[in-house]
Amino acid sequence: MAEEGRVPGDTQHWKEMEGGQRLRVGDVVLLVDQNAPTRQWHLGLVDEVFPGQDAQMDVVQVITRGHKLIRRITSLHPLNTSDPEEKS
């Protein structure tokens, strides 16, 4: 059984995202739904990021199922994140 705050088979905990990892436009995320099993969480695509008062990322706009939603980063679980070293 999955531990609270973890996706089965994944070793990354969401709190790590707050500490150092940053979501970027184009990242794929799972939208956490406390009322549904993990396998029923919806996929989303980060469309825009918004800094909080402390200049740290606090909320993002996510596109999912044709809708744009604003979500706190603590209610998202990254599936892949942009590599900051990646030069495109």
Task: Report the span from N to C terminus.
Answer: 39 Å
**What is the level-2 CATH architecture name?**
Roll
Mean pLDDT: 75
- What's the structural domain tally? 1
Share of helical residues:
under 10%
CATH domain class name: Mainly Beta
> How many H/I helices?
1
Describe this structure in words.
With 88 residues, the protein is mostly beta strands. The protein has one domain (15-80): SH3 type barrels, CATH 2.30.30. 7% of the residues lie in helices and 38% in strands. Strands 4-3-2-1-5 form a five-stranded antiparallel sheet. The protein is globular and about 35 Å long. Mean pLDDT is 75; it is low at 1-6 and 8-16.
Q: Helices, strands, pairings?
A:
Layout: H1 14-19, E1 28-31, E2 42-51, E3 57-64, E4 67-72, E5 76-80
Antiparallel strand pairs: 1-2, 1-5, 2-3, 3-4
Which tags fit this structure?
SH3 type barrels, mainly beta, single chain, 88 residues
